Amino acid sequence: MKGKPAMGVKIRLQKVSFRYGTRFVFQEVSVEFHEHELAVIVGPSGQGKSTLLMCLNRLWEEIPGARMEGEVWITLDGRPRCVSDPSFPATTLRRRVAMVFQTPNPLPMTIFNNVAFPHKLMGVRDRKTLEETVRKALAKAYLWDEVKDRLHEDARHLSGGQQQRLCIARALSLDPEVVLLDEPTSSLDEKAARVIENLLLDLKRRLTVIVVSHSTDQVRRLADRVFRLQEGRLFLDRPLADYLSL
Amino acid sequence: MKPSGRFFVLKIWAAGCALAVVSGAGLVVGFVIRRGAPALRPSLLFGAAPPWHAVFGNVPVFDGLWPAVLGTVSVVLLAVGFAVPLGLAAGIYLAEFARGRTKQMLSVAFDILAGIPSIVIGLFGFSLSLTLHRFVSPRIGPCLVLSAFCLGILVLPYLIRAVQSALEGLPLSLRLTALSLGAHRVQNLRYVLLPSSLNAIATGVILAIGRCAEDTAVILLTGAVALAGKPRSLLENFEALPFYIYYVSSQYTSAEELERGFGAAIILLAISLGLYLIALSIRHRIGRQAFYGR
C-alpha cells in the first residue's frame, strides 16, 4: 500500500503519525476508506479518534504544538490528491472534506446565515443563489420542513438535534465528497440521534462517511466496517457480524 | 461545618461583598449629587452667556464649565480614537499570532506599562513636549493632542489585555467551526472570533473611556489649564472637568465655589455615562451587523 489510492479507494492514510509536542497520539497508521462507505472508528476515550479525523482535513494545523507526519491521499473530483502536502490549499480541502463536531456548533447567527456562511466566505453574494443553496442543504439534512418558516431566527434557539442537523446541512451545502463526524449524536436524545443516523445512511449513497462513535448500538446500525484506535494503533475491528450478534 | 453550610457562608460572604461594592459606589454618587445638585443651573455651564449662543455661536464663556466639557469630551475621544485601533491590533497579535518568547516578552512589557503611575506618564508627556518644543517647533508645548496621546498610552495596556483575554477565552470548538468550513484565518478572525469577543472588548473600551475621563495627573502636566476657553486647535491648551474639580477642591475660597466643584463632578459622571451608552450602542450595532447582516 503505497502512494496514490487504487480505484474504489477514497482515502488512504500512509504511515501517519501524530503528536502534541513530544507526546505521540498514534504512530504509523496506514488505512484505506472506500468510496460510498460508512466507516465507524471506535476505541477508548483519549486515544486520538477525533485527531485522526482532523488529519483528513488538516484541521490539526490550527492547534498549537500539533505535528503530523506521513501522507494522506484523497480522491477528489476523480483525481487522487496528496492532501497532506502543504501545497494543497487547506481551505479547498476543508470544503471537500466536511466535518461535523461532537457538540452542535451553530454560529451565533440566523439559521439562514449559518448555512449561507461558508458560501459568503467564498464570495457568493447573489441572494437567489444563496436561498437555493440554503434550501437544498436544509432539505438534505431533513431540516427544511421544520425551519422553512423561521430561517431568520437565531440558530441557537433550535433544539439540540435540530442544531446538529443544521451543522450537517451547513457542511453538506459545500457539496463535499467526504463527511467526517465526531460522535455526532453523543449530546442528543435517542429520537434525535435516530434521525441523524438515518440521514447518515442516506448520505453514504453519495459520499464517503467516517464516524467516530462510542455506541455499540450505533455501530451495529450504521457501520459498513469498524476500525478500532487503541494504544496508538488503528486496526480493523472484529467482523461486523460480531457486532450484529451482540 | 457541613459542605452545604460552608457553601451558604461563602454565598453570603460573596453577596455581602458585591453589595458593599455597589453600596460604596452608590454612596459616592449619591453624595456628589446631593452636594452638587444645587449648583446645576445653566449658569454653571455657560456663566453669563446665553446658552444657545454659547453652544452654537461664538459667544465666549468666561465663568462656566462649557469649555471644560468640550475639552474633556475632545481629549477622551481623541485618546480612545488613538488607543482602540492600536490596542485591538496589539491584542489580536498577542492572542492569535505571537508565540513562545515573543509573546512572553510582550506580555511582560504590557504588564509593566499597565503598572506605571499616571503621574509618570504625565511627566513623560511633559518631557516630550519640551523636546518637541526645542527640536521640532517652538509652537509645540503642552496641548490637547499631547494629553490625548499620553492618556492613550495610559489605557493601552488595559485595552490590549481585554482584547487578548477575550480572544483567548473563546472555546476551541468555536475557533475551529469556520476553519472547518473553509475559512482562512483572517476570515475566521473577522467573521467569528472578533464578533464573538465583542462583549469583552466593549467592556475594555468602556473602562478605557472611564479612565481617560477621570485622569487628572496626565492632563495636568500635558495641556490642561484653568482658563483656556473652548478647544480651538489640537496644538493648544484646553480646559477639562477633572482638572477643574481638582483645582476647585484644593483652592476653593467659598462654599459656593466648592458646590460648583461638585456640580462639575456630576457633569463629568454624566459625560462618562453618555460615552458609555454610545459605546454600548456601537457594540450593539456592530454585533447585529456581524451576526445578522445579510
Describe the structure.
Chain A: Keywords: ATP-binding, Nucleotide-binding, Phosphate transport, Transport. Chain A: GO terms for molecular function: ATP binding; ATP hydrolysis activity; phosphate transmembrane transporter activity. Chain A: InterPro entries: AAA+_ATPase, ABC_transporter-like_ATP-bd, ABC_transporter-like_CS, P-loop_NTPase, PstB-like. Chain A: Residues 11-246 form the ABC transporter domain. Chain A: This is Phosphate ABC transporter ATP-binding protein. The complex is a heterodimer of chains A (246) and B (294). Chain A is of the alpha/beta class and 246 residues long. Chain A has one domain (9-244): P-loop containing nucleotide triphosphate hydrolases (Rossmann fold, 3-Layer(aba) Sandwich). Helices cover 34% and strands 28% of the residues of chain A. Chain A contains 9 helices and 10 strands. Chain A has helices at residues 49-56, 90-96, 111-121, 127-140, 144-147, 160-172, 190-203, 216-222, 240-244; strands spanning 9-20, 23-34, 38-42, 66-76, 79-82, 97-100, 178-182, 208-212, 225-230, 233-236. In chain A, strand 7, helix 7 (190-203) and strand 8 (208-212) form a beta-alpha-beta unit. In chain A, helix 3 runs parallel beside helix 6 (160-172), helix 4 (127-140) packs across helix 6 and helix 6 (160-172) runs parallel beside helix 7. In chain A, 45% of the residues are buried. Chain B has 294 residues and is mainly α. Chain B has a single domain (40-292), classed as MetI-like fold (Orthogonal Bundle). Helix content of chain B is 78%, strand content 0%. Chain B has 12 helices and no strands. Chain B has helices at 3-36, 42-46, 51-56, 66-97, 100-115, 118-135, 144-168, 172-180, 185-214, 217-222, 241-251, 255-292. Chain B is globular, with a radius of gyration of 23 Å. The N and C termini of chain B lie far apart (57 Å).
